[in-house]
Amino acid sequence: MPSVMSDHxxxxxxxxxxxxxxxxxxxxxKVLGACPKCRGDxxxxxxxxxxxxxxxxxxxxxxxxxVLGIPRI
Length: 73
Ligand SMILES: [Zn+2]
What we know:
Order of helices and strands: EEHEHH
Radius of gyration: 18 Å
Shape: elongated
Structural class: alpha+beta
Number of strands: 3
Distance between the termini: 57 Å
Number of helices: 3
Strand order of the largest sheet: 2-1-3
Helix content: 25-40%
Strand content: 5-15%
Number of domains: 1
Bound molecules: zinc ion
């Protein structure tokens, strides 16, 4: 595998070489699965890997038993 000089991007299109630099775009493009401009393959870079999982339901909130108030028996 050739060394990549600059992988400081969130997503890069292998087709048109367009890059996106925000984790939010990386999430959206992951769902899309292809470049919205040319339908090319997408490559996810360092910024995408470092993206905080902000929209995972319940991941950053209190444990369910605290939220739901389930009594300990
Ligand atoms: Zn493209």
